[in-house]
Design a protein that fits this description.
By secondary structure, the chain is an alpha+beta fold. Helix content is 27%, strand content 14%.
Length: 66
Amino acid sequence: MNNALKNFAPPDPDAKPGSAFGRDAYIFTCPRCPRTPHINQARWWEIIDELGRRGVGELDLSMLPF
């Protein structure tokens, strides 16, 4: 997340279709490949909470199954 605002867009309930923002999803863009994973807001926080419980301080989005 060195370039968080360049590679990450938080959910925006007012987002218009086709915009760089999702209404209920976090959107990430990979600077190395064409992937742009959209992670549902509720699922994102489940992932983050679980990683926190396990003491994991980093998350490689490329390892997630989508």
